[in-house]
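Sample pair:
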Amino acid sequence: MSTAVGNYLMPLDAAASALGVSIYTVRRLVAAKSLPGVRIGTRVMVSSETVARAISEGVPPRTPQKARASVRQRAKTVPAAPQK
């Protein structure tokens, strides 16, 4: 008797547990298209085959995001409106 289940869709929390990362990391990977996901209703699922491939290849590293300027920093760069 074979114990292999085959390819199936798994929720993000199960994928996060299998990959050893947080669910937020998995959401970020799916949003960045580093980990393909499919939306079913309101839920996002990933393929067990994709998770197995990510485990064997290693989870893609987090890409550094551009730092957002604070409100004060943006206020310094925006010229003031002319006074009448």
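The CA atoms of residues 41 and 48 lie 19 Å apart.
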